[in-house]
Amino acid sequence: MTHSCYSDSTVGEGLLEIFQESYLELRPGTSIPELKIEFFAFANLNNTIRLRNGRLLVRLSDLLEGAPEAVLRAISHILLAKIYGKPIDRGNAARYRKYVGSHEIVRKAHLVRQARGRKRLRSPRGHFYDLDGIFEELNFRFFHGLMARPRMSWSQTRTRRILGHYDPAHNAIIISRIFDHPAIPRYVLEYIVYHEMLHLKHPVRLRGSRRCVHSKEFQADERLFPRVADANVFLQRL
């Protein structure tokens, strides 16, 4: 990964001033610690801040290079508020969400993830269930067989925190390996896969400054799954 540190250039000085001003707004009357700020080639649209030996180390996604000053002020406020346990201003949070949720930045973020990200996918065929087969069955039952199958994969670990997710950058559906077990009813796994398939049918949309992940249309389609209530009861016990 490559990165560029800003300390001497005019652009860097401006960014440094933004963080210094945000710091004083959050912690008036205190001394500003030494700041090192750099744009970094993350695989995702990440921003990090750490406090080491009284020194603040900030890494911003290089996708934010060239961002409007108001957006840079928003992210400086958010990062500093988080590390010092201060309330995050809603206006700054909304401003940042709106910028990173814009069509142009989302498009760039997907391209960056494809180019830089390493997606280690497993075989769709598990010990007890075959994800490719389940996808195709659901495709014909609910989507007239018209949905193009993405890459299907079991997760690397038996995670209970993320049961499944669709990764648009790599066009892949990943399902937690915890469901590849004879004690898991087939309809429960089908519901998890069906939910992720709905993310292909109903992509994330931006409404104002907020990302709409599960739209009304998404939720209406989800209720069409025959045993959705039974599946949710099982998942709550799980």
Helix/strand-derived class? alpha/beta
CATH topology of the largest domain: Zincin-like
Global shape = elongated
Indicate the percent of residues in helices. 40-55%
Q: Would you state the CATH class of the largest domain?
A: Alpha Beta
| Main sheet attributes: strand count, strand direction, barrel closure | 4 strands, mixed
Instruction: Report the uncertain regions.
Output: 1-11
Strand content: 15-25%
Distance between the termini: 39 Å
Whole-number total of structural domains: 2
Tell me the series of helices and strands, N- to C-terminal.
EHEEEHHHHEEEHEEHH
| Alpha carbon gyration radius | 22 Å
Architecture per CATH nomenclature, i.e. the level-2 architecture of the largest domain = 2-Layer Sandwich
CATH superfamily heading of the largest domain: Metalloproteases ("zincins"), catalytic domain
Number of strands: 9
Helix tally?
A: 8
State mean pLDDT (0 to 100 scale).
86
Placed side by side, the strands forming the largest sheet appear as 1-2-4-3
Description:
The chain has 238 residues and is an alpha/beta fold. It folds into two domains: 114 residues, Zincin-like (2-Layer Sandwich); 107 residues, Metalloproteases ("zincins"), catalytic domain (Zincin-like, 2-Layer Sandwich), CATH 3.30.2010.10. It is built from eight helices and nine strands. A four-stranded mixed sheet has the order 1-2-4-3, with helices on one face. A hairpin with a 4-residue loop joins strand 6 and strand 7. Helix 1 packs across helix 2 and helix 5 packs across helix 6.
